[in-house]
Amino acid sequence: MTIPPFITSSKKFLCEDHTSSNLPCRFSFLLKKFVVFVDIVPSFCQMAENVLQTQIELVINRLKEAIDGADGFQNTHQPQQFELAKFSIDQVVFILEKPHVILGAADGDMNL
Question: 49 and 68, same structural domain?
Answer without folding.
Answer: yes
